[in-house]
Amino acid sequence: MTKTNRASGYVLVLVLLAAWEISARTAVLPSTSWPRLSSTLVQAVVGTISGELLSPWLSTLGRMFAGYAIGSLLGVLAGLIAGYSSAVRRTFNPLVETIRPIPTPAVIPPLILLLGIDDGLKIFVISLAVFFPLYINTVGGVDSVPAALIQTGRTFRTGKVRTTFGILLPAALPSVISGLRIAIGLALVVTVVAEMTAGSAGLGYYLLQMQFAMRPEAMYAAVLYLSLTGYVLNMLLQKIQSHVLRTWGLEAST
Amino acid sequence: MKLDRILSIFGPALCAAALLVLQPATANAQTELTKVRIGLLPIDDVAPVHVGIKKGFFAAEGLQVEVVPSTGGAVGIPALVSGALDITYGNTVSTILAAQQGLDMRFISMTLRGAPDLSGLIVRKSDGIKTGADLAGKTVAVNARNGVVWLYTRAWIAQSGGDPSKVNFREIPFPQMPDALAQKQVDAVFVVDPFRSALNRNPEYEQIALPYKAVQPTLQVGTYIVSASYLAKNKAVVDKFLKALQRSNDWYDANLRSPERIEISAGYTGAKPELIRSLADRPSLRGINESDLEKTMQQMKQQGLLKKDVEIQKMIYNGTL
Predict the structure, then answer these.
(1) Cβ-defined contact of A196 to B71 (cutoff 8 Å)
(2) Could you tell me which chain B residue has the CA closest to the CA of A245?
(3) Residue B84 contacts A where some CB pair is shorter than 8 Å
(4) Is B162 helix (H, G, I), strand (E, B) or coil?
(5) Which of A166, B101, B171, B237 is the most buried if burial means most Cβ atoms within 10 Å?
(6) Given a cut of 90, is residue B31 above it in pLDDT?
(7) Mean pLDDT, range A106-130, rounded to an integer
(8) Where are the alpha helices (DSSP H) in chain B?
(9) Are B83 and A116 a contacting pair at CB < 8 A?
(10) Which of B20, B41, B124, B278 would best serve as a mutation to test chain A binding (most A beta carbons within 10 A)?
(11) Is A253 on the interface with B (CB under 8 A)?
């Protein structure tokens, strides 16, 4: 992305934020639940200092990363196995494709019966959401490994485990990492949805609590927190992605 | 592949995550206290439980009450069934519905008085809607289909000359109802406090009915529930809980306007003290009115929510205070 491109992206965000402030100040959107951007920003600062916003944010992040780690790990492992064995893939594909589209709020009530309402439930649904992009991208990545590479492995009588972790995984890595990037945004959304549905902590619960407390500026401060968190996480993963790809490219050429 | 590089970025975050998630429940020196988990919404109805915790009334009975706050009605009864909660705040209608589905629940206590006076049907004054008959072909916002609000809105429409089957119902959460009415997405909202009071202060809107009061003046909605199996195994715990709840109710009723009670309510709702002070006083309810619950059940049958009678008497815990 060139510098002018990036600048115009920021300008667009600023224009929308200005539109927010103006619409709340004038009578364009007359509503007691549409606060000014300025009062939302003030509340964000106040809530950060008092910990009112910071502590639910940290608890959301904790849950999100736990689910993200578990789901990613299982997704990559399952993807490698399914990528390696077409029999496994054929067996599991219908199941994967039927579970994948189920929205999180729909699975939470029945899952409460099995997993309760605490972090176990939430981490499970986050892992579930994260699992699929990782699984699908890993299978895809393994698929794209040149046959010559695998045959070379066979020539050297490389074992299954070594082939998987020594040849398939590194070769599938670019695809796995783009799966990780897709999954991080998903993980954040699902965490908040889970906290709103069966919430007891975190920003998802805070969002609803503030609606009932008639404090829209506090609610939108939490929305700003979420938006920034998503932006920063995506940027971090983008950095990791380009870093790993560069390193991986060097390894490939030497 | 520089795995260590990735780990150096993600490692600290993961550790922080693990610490947050694995954090043990608040350590308590008095380990002999019996733990009771109760599911509560962040609304004024449940204030006495928070009073009891804050003032140590539950601890005095040997109970350590842990509040599991939630915002969704989807949580309560399934969580009782799974044992994730011991007690939950709920409403009479969904509990009777659950009983029909074979989920054996017990009402152990009611919450606060006043629901019939504080839940209103509000329209835009300029539309001229006055009765249930005027609502034909119009859209009414309720917080949940098949819930208590939906039930009594339908009953009120029928009572005031309308036909509930000719009215469209839309599910909208209470906090969003004022906007939905202002933006003309709906023609009427059944809304509770504090949103109701806020709408009533605006001259553009008009409260045309208090449907609970019009249909069933004695109606009580909020209740604490346990599963029958929990009650069978933990009768002593429930009795202690109720005893402490009585003490909490006494204190709450005597200190409704005290700064301490305002502070307690502001604490768990996240609302500003001004808002809490602006709400109507709601003293606590004692005992459980069986004939009122029978009437509720009859309403449910009339509106097609219930196919056959449920034994209400069996659902009321006879040890209630």
Answers:
(1) yes
(2) B1
(3) yes
(4) coil
(5) B237
(6) no
(7) 89
(8) 3-22, 47-54, 57-60, 76-82, 92-100, 115-118, 148-159, 177-182, 195-200, 211-215, 228-233, 235-254, 259-269, 273-278, 290-302, 312-315
(9) yes
(10) B20
(11) no
Coil, strand or helix: which one is B164? Answer: helix
Average pLDDT over every residue of B152-168: 94
pTM score of the predicted model? 0.82
Chain-centroid distance of CA A159 in Å reads 34
Contacts of B269 in chain A (CB under 8 A): 209, 212-213
Find residue B224's DSSP bridge partners: B89, B109
B92 alpha carbon, distance to own chain's centre? 10
- The confidence band for A2, taking pLDDT boundaries of 50, 70 and 90, is low
Under 8 Å CB pairs connecting chains A and B tally to 139
Task: Kindly calculate the radius of gyration of chain B based on its CA atoms and give it in whole angstroms.
Answer: 22
pLDDT tier for residue B25 given thresholds of 50, 70 and 90: very low
Q: Is B291 on the interface with A (CB under 8 A)?
A: no
Q: Which tokens go with B137?
A: 């072909």
Which amino acid, one-letter code, is at B124? R
Distance, in Å, from the CA atom of B181 to the CA atom of A30, rounded to the nearest integer, reads 12
| CA torsion angle B50 B53 B54 B60 (round to 10) | 150
Q: What is the pLDDT of residues A147-196, one digit of tens each?
A: 888 888 888 887 878 888 888 888 888 899 999 999 999 999 999 999 88
Place of tokens 């009859």: B298
Which SS3 state, helix, strand or coil, does residue B244 take?
helix
Answer whether B83 sits within 8 Å of A214, measured CB to CB.
Answer: no
Q: How confident is the model over B218-255, as pLDDT tens digits?
A: 999 999 999 999 999 999 999 999 999 999 999 999 99
Backbone φ, ψ for residue B205 (5° rounding)? -115, 160
pLDDT of residue A164: 80
What is the pLDDT at residue A30?
Answer: 67
In the structure encoding, which two tokens stand for residue A133, read together?
């992009």
Compare A245 and B1 and report the one with higher pLDDT: A245
Are residues A61 and B81, on separate chains, in Cβ contact within 8 Å? no
Instruction: Give CA separation, B83 vs A115, B14, B34, in Å.
Output: 10, 30, 15
Instruction: Give the span between the Cα atoms of B75 and B37, in whole angstroms.
Output: 13
Burial (CB count <10 Å: 0-12, 13-18, 19+), residue B11: exposed
